[in-house]
UniProtKB/TrEMBL annotation:
Protein name as annotated: tRNA-specific 2-thiouridylase MnmA
GO terms for MF: ATP binding; tRNA binding; tRNA-uridine 2-sulfurtransferase activity
Task performed by this protein: Catalyzes the 2-thiolation of uridine at the wobble position (U34) of tRNA, leading to the formation of s(2)U34.
Keywords associated with the record: ATP-binding, Cytoplasm, Disulfide bond, Nucleotide-binding, RNA-binding, Transferase, tRNA processing, tRNA-binding
EC numbers on record: 2.8.1.13
Enzyme's top EC category: transferase
tRNA-specific 2-thiouridylase MnmA-like C-terminal domain: residues covered: 289-364
Active site: 105, 210
InterPro entries cross-referenced by the UniProt entry: MnmA-like, MnmA-like_C, MnmA-like_central, MnmA-like_central_sf, Rossmann-like_a/b/a_fold
Residues noted as binding ATP in the record, renumbered to the chain: 14-21, 40, 129
Catalysed reactions, as listed in the record: S-sulfanyl-L-cysteinyl-[protein] + uridine(34) in tRNA + AH2 + ATP = 2-thiouridine(34) in tRNA + L-cysteinyl-[protein] + A + AMP + diphosphate + H(+)
Region of interest (Interaction with tRNA), ranges: 160-162, 315-316
Segments forming domain tRNA-specific 2-thiouridylase MnmA-like central: 219-282
Amino acid sequence: MNLPANPNQKVIIAMSGGVDSSVAAALLKEQGYNVIGITMQIWEPKKEFGGCCALSAIEDAKKVALKLGIPHYVLNFRKEFEEKVIKYFIEEYKNGRTPNPCVKCNELIKFDLLARKARELGAFYVATGHYVRIGFKGSRDQGIKKNIEYKLLKGIDEAKDQSYVLYMMNQETLKHSLFPLGELTKKEVRKTAKEFGLPVHDKEESQEICFVENDNYGSFLRERIPEYCKPGNLLDTNGNIIGKHNGIIFYTIGQRKGIGAHKKRKYVVEIYSKENTVVIGDNEDLLKKELRTDNLTFVSGEFQKNRIEICAKIRYNSPEVKATLILIDKKEGKVVFKEPQRAVTPGQSVVFYDGDEVLGGGIITNSEKT
């Protein structure tokens, strides 16, 4: 573990009740840190289900903290989560875009709100169970006293790397962050959990977004914004009306389900919220050579070049591809791919890499064939 040597340094560990954050807490305790476990209550499910906000998850976190002999607290961030994450999630769908709420949660809740609470508790660091690493120029042990350049790096375990959802990290947040699992594989984490005797060592991972039960986006959105569930015209790429859709919030770029039967396989290629229309086309219509992005952010701060060769990732589970990033201004840019990419989706993040290093990223606004 490449962690700064600060014996007895106070650190807040975000504990979800899962194996990753539990092992992160155990490793920090073993390294001599003064560890305080925090579970964030950000959502109250209508019923008990497997999300990180379930009562069972809080109980699991408490059991782990008790096993490790560290204090554990539950902080109620429901109001802030509603204002900063859920409202954003809903607004994006209303605008015909497909958001990634985990990115916003990391940016505005874990590494902002929780970080501020950590300062109030006298903790210098916030730690999580994310599979990423921190690199830096110079000695990290001097980071408290001196200005050094921090880098956000992919986790060693390629299958578990979570750098995509942390691209918004900056020099200040990295300075105050610890990621104990960055140099471990998931298999090693499971093994470590068992060696520590943690009660969650064999707990299954939750694949759901914490506030969407059973991964049913449609049901959640139908309840929150029923006015956006009204049917509208389904168009072909020539603008001809060929049917009806069920409501724009139920569709995303590249989707096949819910667009009716056709002679050829068809996909959603465009969504127009103001007109309440969904356009379907062939697979070739999904291939785009470039995209536009806004809300640009760079790990190092402002980027010094207007044009740079990068590798770009346009969704969490997609591979990185070669591209050129062209800055339009400080917050807007254009990404030109070496090869056309399929289903570039407005609302998703595009993240820029140089090898293992995360340079930054932004939110996709639109895409073009040429």
